[in-house]
Amino acid sequence: RLRGDGGSAPWELLFQASVPALGFSTFAVSRLSRGDPRGHPARAPVLSQPREIQNEHVRVLFDPLTGHLKEIQNLDKSISLPVFQSFYWYNASVGNDESPQASGAYIFRPNSSEPVPVSSSKRVSAHLVKNALVQEVHQNFSSWCSQVVRLRAGEPYVELEWTVGPIPVEDGWGKEIVSRFETTLQTDARFYTDSNGRQVTERRRDYRPTWNLSQTEAVAGNYYPVNSRIFIRDQKFQLTVLTDRSQGGGSVFDGSLELMVHRRLLYDDNRGVGEPLVELGADGRGLVVRGRHLVLLDTVESAADRHRLLAQELFMAPYAVLAPGGGPSYRR
């Protein structure tokens, strides 16, 4: 099933698969006849008003009134953390006589440090789906932004699969979309990002280690490249978000972190491209982007044991390749 991108398929095929090291596995999918009893498996229940999902390692709580993520619990360590997550968009600067620099392909420059919630109301549409392999809460923030909060059986992380786009620009504003996490962690203006997927570097808001910074961009001036992970922590707990692609991210206020997931801009930033960042896609309506964030809650002492290995798994994940059937099977 293709969620949020106009796909007409009503179902999603889900099965557990394994792949050998430096190898591949093939699986065949075929349509069964209506009379075949195997063609009518038990359907996963769809439940309204989601309150929680849980596997062997993690429990995730939701606000039943708003549908938003409310709390993450690490059952192995018996720790919990209030976590609110939602999507926002920054108004992109357009460039004028007083401030000529516009947001564009190379420049992130919002015209306000306060983003706009993607959801026009405090409540998001949400429903719960459970089966033997996954537990999911499907959230719909708007007609162009949705997310599946997922726990896989046996895995110690929360998976957020987001689908964003086409970003509407009929109001004349270019938009830069972020997924923001807000927690109660006392972070003292510090957060951490990886350097090219390897060494983790401490970042401090409105600070540079080698010169006295006069900050003029409260948001963009505190964004950094995030190739594989970003995290915040206090003296006890750490919240880590792993990315499946390089993104920009930061912590614009204590206890928070955010990652930019999509952009659509209406003006060129005068950095050589000579056109705005406004790809229309195959249907001419704008691009739809889908990606994943993996969220880990752990103690500061043991957080790296999991996020380093999981980041490598994401980076070296096997490719899923689809092809029509009927031809000869690949064999090793």
From TrEMBL:
GO terms for molecular function: alpha-mannosidase activity; carbohydrate binding. GO terms for cellular component: lysosome. InterPro entries: Gal_mutarotase_sf_dom (IPR011013), Glyco_hydro_38_C (IPR011682), Glycosyl_Hydrlase_38 (IPR050843), Man2a1-like_dom (IPR048534). It holds the Pfam family Glyco_hydro_38C. Residues 3-29 form the Lysosomal alpha-mannosidase-like central domain. GO terms for biological process: mannose metabolic process. Residues 53-271 form the Glycosyl hydrolase family 38 C-terminal domain. Gene3D superfamilies: Golgi alpha-mannosidase II, domain 4 (2.70.98.30). PANTHER family: ALPHA-MANNOSIDASE, LYSOSOMAL ALPHA-MANNOSIDASE. This is MA2B1 mannosidase. It comes from Scopus umbretta. The lineage of its organism: Eukaryota, Metazoa, Chordata, Craniata, Vertebrata. The gene is Man2b1.
